[in-house]
Amino acid sequence: MGNSKSTRGFANESEYQYQPPGPNDSRSPCPALNALANHGYLPRDGKNIPQEVLQRAAQQKMGLSWLATKVILKQSYKTAGHDGLLSLSDLCYHAPDSIEHDGSLSRIDATLSNNQQGKFNQERFDKFLSFSKDGKYLTTEDVAAARLYFKADSHAHNPQCIWNKDIEEAMWTEASILLHILGKNGRISIEDAKLFFEKETFPSNWQKHPSFGVRERYTAAKALKNAARRINK
Ligand code: HEM
């Protein structure tokens, strides 16, 4: 599934230097969207973003296809938007129909963190990294094991854990785009994962995916689910 609908690219890349967010800037539970704002592909304050601005940034900078972006944005603006706009912190909205969910790789569950589900948590992220078997890369198998671990942990320790079919699917989808958009061919280096999650920036030698569409997303999520099945056997 290619980028069947095009948006304007970012002409002068030198204008998009990294700047860490200020105390009043709005940030989300998604490291990718935060990185886009930290580089100015989204408004740096992260506030009141029209859907087409987010569509362009996810498509042109991250390589998500037009349709794959549209699907996730439709749900985001429907559940968390206000008057057709979205501030990044609106994505912390936590409910059965929200994109934000429990059992994340780098954030503590809403009810266990006094609603800090949008904030990066170093301890949790270090636990995620500990699933790397060689200490250099996170592979499909490593990420599948981590995903299973954090899901089970939330179910065991969070009496108010919200879980359903859509959340289950979102959990595999996010992990698959991490491995294929930020990483390559189903694995990501620990070094790149640290830059992406801890600093919310793009690795220096990183190149965007040519077009990560609905079909690629399905195949990648399936590979992760198959790896999880092998672990559970
Ligand atoms: C296109 C628009 C996008 C929207 C609206 C969006 C939104 C979100 C939201 C709300 C979460 C929080 C889920 C949770 O509670 O864990 C999330 C997580 C995540 N997103 Fe995005 N996202 C988008 C694109 C991307 C892209 C292009 C990537 C590429 C790598 C990405 C990578 C991730 C990852 C890895 C997580 C999991 C974080 C964790 O578990 O700690 N997202 N996203």
> How widely separated are the two ends?
33 Å
Strand order of the largest sheet: 1-2
- What structural category do the secondary elements indicate? mainly alpha
The share of residues in helices is 40-55%
Secondary-structure element order, N to C: HEHHEHEHHEHH
Shape: globular
What's the architecture, going by CATH?
A: Orthogonal Bundle
Low-confidence stretches: none
Total domain units: 1
Count, helices: 8
Q: Explain this structure to me?
A:
- This protein has 233 residues and is mainly alpha-helical.
- It has one domain (26-98, 110-232): Chloroperoxidase (Orthogonal Bundle), CATH 1.10.489.10.
- The chain contains eight helices and four strands; from the N terminus they run H-E-H-H-E-H-E-H-H-E-H-H.
- It has helices spanning 31-38, 51-60, 66-80, 122-129, 140-157, 165-182, 190-199, 214-232; strands spanning 49-50, 85-86, 137-139, 187-189.
- The strands form two sheets. The chain has a two-stranded antiparallel sheet with strand order 1-2. A two-stranded antiparallel sheet has the order 3-4.
- Helix 6 crosses helix 8.
- The longest helix has 19 residues, at 214-232.
- Residues 28-33, 58, 62, 64, 69, 72-73, 76, 91, 99-101, 104-107, 174, 177-178, 181-182 line the site of protoporphyrin IX containing FE.
Itemize the secondary structure elements and their pairings:
Elements: H1 31-38, E1 49-50, H2 51-60, H3 66-80, E2 85-86, H4 122-129, E3 137-139, H5 140-157, H6 165-182, E4 187-189, H7 190-199, H8 214-232
Antiparallel strand pairs: 1-2, 3-4
Bound molecules: protoporphyrin IX containing FE.
Family: Belongs to the chloroperoxidase family.
Pfam family, one: Peroxidase_2
Biased composition (Polar residues): 1-17
